[in-house]
Amino acid sequence: MPLTPEQQAEIDTLRSQPQETLRTVAPGMERHLYTAHPVLDHGFVRVVDYMGDDAAICQAARVSYGKGTKSVSNDEGLIRYLMRHWHSTPFEMCEVKLHVKLPVFVARQWIRHRTANVNEYSARYSILDREFYIPAPDALAAQSTTNNQGRGEALQGDEAQRVLRILQDDAMRCYDHYEQMISEDGQQGLARELARMNLPANVYTQWYWKVDLHNLLHFLRLRADAHAQYEIRVYADAICAIVADWVPAAYKAFEDYRMGGATLSSSALDCVRRMLKGEEVTQESSGMSKGEWREFMGVIEP
């Protein structure tokens, strides 16, 4: 179950007591407040609080840059200019606080983004639930033959069933032992902070994650990318949908310039210019390595 009865009761209480406010309100984000969006088999993402909107980005930019922005005819144009020229501080004026439930191994990837405030569920103080991420059959894949940190084709038939059975059996067995160790029935019981080390990396944890929009978009650029691991990418996709409703102009610019755009090196740009002049350019004459050339060709000839 994604939300506990206690969490749902708290959310229901908060939603039943709306309050007037003089602060900026983003109508698209208001619809997401306190709504748990399911992710994976037991996980979720929900908005706890937020600050700012598209207008807040423009307000901050105009304070910073003064009359130099007066040539920009509208807020959307200004936001696109800021995104296009990598001006980051105006986007830092918006913040969001998320409540996320996720497997531990996903959390360990996520925490690499050290530009947020995080408070995680304490397994030293509380007992973790018997909830584990078990992949859907189509998410079980072999090791990629071209990428050391990626996956290839999906496992088939008996092998897929055997792997699923191992994952389920190991998770349940580890949790059984966890419960046995912390139990105080007829024994002292092992400390929770020690017993937790026996749990596998697919057990679920929860945290509050507060981040400004600039750093959130950087997170999404990496984790909503097709090359990101599936289990963190689905969380990033869920957050993308939320951000698109919160700051639609900023998100559209982000899609155009970051997610849908490409950065070219000086060598790659030189190759494009030569190609436009009709010159036949090869990897050998490009001045790029094989890896750089392969990535370059993936951009101009997807």
UniProtKB/TrEMBL annotation:
- Record-annotated active site: 223 (involved in ionization of n3 of dump, leading to its activation)
Listed EC numbers = 2.1.1.148
Associated pathway:
Pyrimidine metabolism; dTTP biosynthesis
- Gene3D superfamilies referenced in this protein's UniProt entry, alphabetically: 3.30.1360.170
Q: Name one Pfam family in it.
A: Thy1
Task: Cite the binding residues for FAD.
Answer: 89, 112-114, 120, 212-214, 218
Coiled coil (residue ranges):
none
Q: Which SUPFAM superfamilies match?
A: Thymidylate synthase-complementing protein Thy1
Cofactor: record remark: Binds 4 FAD per tetramer. Each FAD binding site is formed by three monomers.
Q: Which residues bind dUMP?
A: 109-112, 120-124, 196, 223
GO terms (BP aspect): dTMP biosynthetic process; dTTP biosynthetic process; methylation
Determine if Methyltransferase is one of this entry's keywords: yes
Q: List the Gene Ontology MF annotations in alphabetical order.
A: flavin adenine dinucleotide binding; NADPH binding; thymidylate synthase (FAD) activity; thymidylate synthase activity
Output the PROSITE patterns linked to this UniProt entry. Answer: THYX
The alphabetized UniProt keywords are: FAD, Flavoprotein, Methyltransferase, NADP, Nucleotide biosynthesis, Transferase
Asked if the Swiss-Prot or TrEMBL record annotates the protein with the keyword Methyltransferase, the reply is yes
- The top EC class is transferase
Cofactors required: FAD
User: Which reaction is this enzyme known to catalyze?
Assistant: dUMP + (6R)-5,10-methylene-5,6,7,8-tetrahydrofolate + NADPH + H(+) = dTMP + (6S)-5,6,7,8-tetrahydrofolate + NADP(+)
Q: How does it assemble?
A: Homotetramer.
| HAMAP family per the UniProt record, alphabetical | ThyX
The UniProt entry's sequence similarity note says: Belongs to the thymidylate synthase ThyX family.
What role does it play?
Catalyzes the reductive methylation of 2'-deoxyuridine-5'-monophosphate (dUMP) to 2'-deoxythymidine-5'-monophosphate (dTMP) while utilizing 5,10-methylenetetrahydrofolate (mTHF) as the methyl donor, and NADPH and FADH(2) as the reductant.
Protein name from the UniProt record: Flavin-dependent thymidylate synthase
Report the source organism.
Roseovarius pacificus
